[in-house]
Amino acid sequence: MIVMIAAVAENNALGKDNELVWHLPNDFKRFKALTSGHYIIMGRKTFESFPKPLPNRTHVVITRQANYQPEGCIVTHSIEEAIKNCPENEVVYIIGGGEIYKQALPFSDKIEITKVHGQFEADAFFPEMNENEWELVQSEFNTKDEKHLYDYTYQTFVKK
């Protein structure tokens, strides 16, 4: 099963200058809980935005660079190649960025969204989802607090 996971603003913003434009500690905890022990597919810029590889996950990095080989990662050159490098009968997570989400949408079975309730200036965006192809099966609203500056909702979509 291929699952896209992302924190997305109401205007589909993902981030700016290769960084998130909000800080939601509970979303980080949820991301870690869901992706730990799994293969995670990402673009090179997303990988390079981490201070170090994420623990307890197998990193599959998509890049156009011919000689790119970060230690401990599987390097591929297309979304199709990345998927082929992951175990067939396991959950695989697509973690970004914007262009990778766009390429992965047709291959995905499920989408885990943290909808950040706000509009943000960004240079990376989540692709538009066709409402005829996806069904919202779970939704959990969370109010802002001292650690979270924005209301947010966990949403789970499955392909119809």
TrEMBL record:
Superkingdom as given in the UniProt entry: Bacteria
Domain DHFR: 1-159
Catalytic activity: (6S)-5,6,7,8-tetrahydrofolate + NADP(+) = 7,8-dihydrofolate + NADPH + H(+)
Listed Gene3D superfamilies: Dihydrofolate Reductase, subunit A (3.40.430.10)
Pathway: Cofactor biosynthesis; tetrahydrofolate biosynthesis; 5,6,7,8-tetrahydrofolate from 7,8-dihydrofolate: step 1/1
Keyword Amino-acid biosynthesis: no
E.C. number(s) listed in UniProt: 1.5.1.3
Keywords for the protein's UniProt record, in alphabetical order: NADP, One-carbon metabolism, Oxidoreductase
CDD domains, alphabetized: DHFR
InterPro entries: DHFR, DHFR-like_dom_sf, DHFR_dom
Pfam family, one: DHFR_1
Family the UniProt entry places it in: Belongs to the dihydrofolate reductase family.
Function, as annotated: Key enzyme in folate metabolism. Catalyzes an essential reaction for de novo glycine and purine synthesis, and for DNA precursor synthesis.
Name this polypeptide is given: Dihydrofolate reductase
Biological source species: Flavobacterium ammoniigenes
